[in-house]
Amino acid sequence: MSTHIASVYDEDLKYLTRRISEMGGLAEQMVAESVRALVNSDLALAQKVISDDVILDDAERQIGEKAIITIARRQPMAADLREIMGSIRIAADLERVGDLGKNNAKRVIAVANASLPRQLSRGLEHLAELALVQLKEVLDVYASRSVEKANSIRERDSEIDAIYTSLFRELLTYMMEDPRNITPCTHLLFCAKNIERIGDHATNIAETIYYMATGAQPVGDRPKDDSANTVGALESST
Amino acid sequence: MNMMSEAAVEKALDKKMNDVSFKMIGKDVSVYYGAKRALFDVNLNVRQNTVTALIGPSGCGKSTFLRCLNRMNDTIDSCRVTGKITLDDGDIYDPSIDVVELRARVGMVFQKPNPFPKSIYENVAYGPRIHGLARNKAEMDQIVETSLQRAGLWNEAKDRLQEPGTGLSGGQQQRLCIARAVAVSPEVILMDEPCSALDPIATAKVEELIHELRANFTIVIVTHSMQQAARVSQRTAMFHLGNLVEENDTDKMFTNPDDQRTQDYIMGRFG
C-alpha cells in the first residue's frame, strides 16, 4: 500500500506491527516452553515462563497506549482505523495466550512428582504442537495479510478441539483407574484446556486479520467440535 | 424519558431516510469555466432530510457542484452548466425558473460568515421581507425569533437584536448567517465549508445545529475536514479531478470505502 503523506504516521503504524510480531514470537516461545517444562518436570524452565509473562503484559500495554495516541493524533480512517483497532485486539489475544502458557507453567510443580504415562505426555505434546502451528501460521498471516490463509486457520481449529476431547477421555480413564492420579490429572486437564484455548485465540486473531484486510467479518460460523463438553454424559445416563 | 423521545425522533427520522426519496437529482452534470471543464457528467442524488457531505481535494469540483444546486454559478460569466438538475422533479435550469425564487428554496451558507452591515434583526428579516413572508411587524418578529432559535443564537442575541450583526463573534456570525438562510423557510440548505473559519467550540455548535436542522431541511455540505464529514453526514460523496468517484453511506465511506481513490484520500495517503 502507498505511504502516508505524513511519514511519522507510517512509523506509528509500523511500530504497532513490529510490536505485535514480537509479542507473537514471545507468546509462542512461552507456550512451547511451558509444555516442555510440564513433560520434563523442568521447574527452572517453568519459572522462566512465569517471569517472561511480565514482558508480554508490558508489550500489550504499550501497544494499547500507542494505538490510543495514534487515534487521538491522526484520526485514522478506513483501513488505517481497522489496522489500529485490530492491533489492540490481537495484542489482547496474544497477552491471553501468554497467560495460558504461564498457567501451564505454574502447574508444573503440582504435576512434577507424578510419573506421567508416556502416552499421555505425548498426547499433550501433540495438542500443543497443533496449537503452536496455528499460532505460528496466524502470525505469518499477520505479516503477509493473506486473507485466504486466515480462513483456513479458522477452519482447522476443530482438529485441536477433537484432540482435546480425546485427551479429556484419557485423563478420565486414569483418574478412574487410581484415585491417586486425580490431582495430577486434574492439573493436566486444565493444561489441556489451556492449550485448546490457545487455538481459539489463534482463530480470533485470524478473524481479526480478515477484518483488517477486508473490512468485512468472516462469513459463516466458526467450525467447532465441542463434544468435550458432553464427555461422560452418555456413559452415566446409560 | 426525554432520551426516549429523542431516540424515537431519531428513529422516525432514520425511517424517513430509509424510504429513500430524492430531494434533488443531478444527472450528467458538467460545468465549464470558459474552455476549461471543471465537472464531468456527475450523477448525484440528494436525499430528503439527509445531510450529504461532499469531500475531495482542492479543485476536485465539489464546490462547483454545490453551486450548481442553486445556480450560484450563473453569477460567473464564463461558466456554462450542462446536464440536468431537478428539485422535486422541477428542472432548476428551466428558462421559466425565477432564480431568486429558486434561491429562496435552496439557501446557502458560505465559508466566511458574511452578515449584512445591518442589525442582527435586519439580517434575519431581510429575506422574509423581500419575499413578502410576513404581513406585519408581529409576524416578522416571530420569524426572526424562530429563525434565531433554530440557529441556536436566540439566547445570545435576544437582548441585542438592534446591534450590528458584524459585532458578533465569528461563530455567532456564522449562526446568524444560518438563521438568515433558515428565515425564508428553504427546503434545501447548501453549506460551503461553513466551519473553516471557526474555532472548535463554534464548529461544534454549528455541527450540532446541522444535526437538528436535518429534521426540517435537506442539507448538502462541502467540507475539507473528513472528520467533520464523518460527524455530520449520513451520505458522503467523494470528488476527484471533476469526477464523482464514489457516493456511499457515511459509515461505510469512512470504514471501508469501495474506491481506492477514496481510500487514499481519507487515509491521507499518496494516490
From TrEMBL, chain A:
Q: List locations, semicolon-separated.
A: Cytoplasm
Record InterPro entries? PhoU, PhoU-like_sf, PhoU_dom
The keyword Transcription is assigned to this record = no
Q: Which UniProt keywords apply?
A: Cytoplasm, Phosphate transport, Transport
GO BP field: intracellular phosphate ion homeostasis; negative regulation of phosphate metabolic process; phosphate ion transport
Is Cytoplasm found in the keyword set?
Answer: yes
Per the record, what is one GO cellular component? cytoplasm
Entry superkingdom? Bacteria
Just give the chief location class. cytoplasm
Where's the PhoU domain? 20-108, 124-208
Listed under subunit, the entry gives: Homodimer.
Q: What does this protein do?
A: Plays a role in the regulation of phosphate uptake.
What family classification does the UniProt entry report for this protein? Belongs to the PhoU family.
Name by which UniProt lists this protein: Phosphate-specific transport system accessory protein PhoU
UniProtKB/TrEMBL annotation, chain B:
Where does the sequence pass through the membrane?
Answer: none
Q: Does the keyword Heme apply?
A: no
Q: Where is the signal peptide?
A: none
Domain ABC transporter stretches:
24-266
Per its UniProt record, what Pfam families does this chain match? ABC_tran
Instruction: Fetch the InterPro entries from UniProt.
Output: AAA+_ATPase, ABC_transporter-like_ATP-bd, ABC_transporter-like_CS, P-loop_NTPase, PstB-like
Q: Name one GO molecular function term.
A: phosphate transmembrane transporter activity
Give the record's family classification: Belongs to the ABC transporter superfamily.
**Name by which UniProt lists this protein:** Phosphate ABC transporter ATP-binding protein
Q: Which organism is it from?
A: Pararhizobium antarcticum
